[in-house]
Design a protein that fits this description.
The chain is 54% helix and 17% strand. The protein has six helices and five strands, in the order H-H-E-E-E-E-H-E-H-H-H. A five-stranded mixed sheet has the order 3-2-1-4-5. The chain is elongated and about 105 Å long.
């Protein structure tokens, strides 16, 4: 199973793998995913894990993790901290040892998340340039600043005009009262 091989390759990068696996040897973790529904039994052994499809009940497992795929991804990327859409039940010791095993892993060994973030920032800059410079859909920064300065100047002139009208109104009222 490709997923099992990928997990074991990831685990093999940990120089302390066998030491961290030791408390889990002989233990099983049930994994029930929703959307699509998949049930797996994860057995821990020296050097990694073994995954098997489980058509039956996971109640015989030492611990069971139920999650949506997004919840499982969030749990993995958070270093084993709880996330939404994840439920853990069963032997608390097994749950803690599984968290411990996966908490020290670098799930982005090639910097792909950082590269993706940089790509997104570049895309946003390019879109902003397209919208302002090439298509003229949006004003450039100097044009926007000039517009804002013009609005401020207009607001100040309106305030001065309003103050002058109040003074003239007061003056007219004082001339009419004997």
């Amino acid at each position: 199973m490709f997923t099992e091989r990928a997990i074991n390759q990831l685990l093999a990068r940990d120089p302390l793998l066998n030491e961290r696996l030791e408390p889990l040897l002989g233990k099983t973790l049930g994994l029930r995913l929703s959307e699509p529904e998949i049930s797996l039994r994860i057995s821990f052994h020296v050097g990694g894990v073994h995954l098997s499809r489980e058509a039956g009940d996971l109640d015989s497992c030492d611990a069971v993790l139920e999650a949506t795929p997004a919840g499982l991804a969030s749990l993995a990327l958070s270093g084993g901290q709880r996330s939404r859409n994840v439920q853990l039940r069963g032997d608390i010791g097994t749950i803690q040892e599984v968290r411990q095993l996966f908490s020290g892993l670098n799930l982005d060994p090639n910097g792909t998340l950082g590269a993706g973030r940089e790509g997104a920032e570049t895309l946003l800059r390019n879109l902003a340039e397209l919208a302002t410079e090439e298509r003229g859909w949006l004003p450039t920064a100097p044009e926007a600043n000039e517009f804002i300065a013009g609005v401020d100047a207009l607001r100040e002139a309106a305030d001065r005009l309003e103050a002058r009208l109040r003074r003239l109104e007061q003056q007219r009222q004082s001339e009419q009262t004997p």
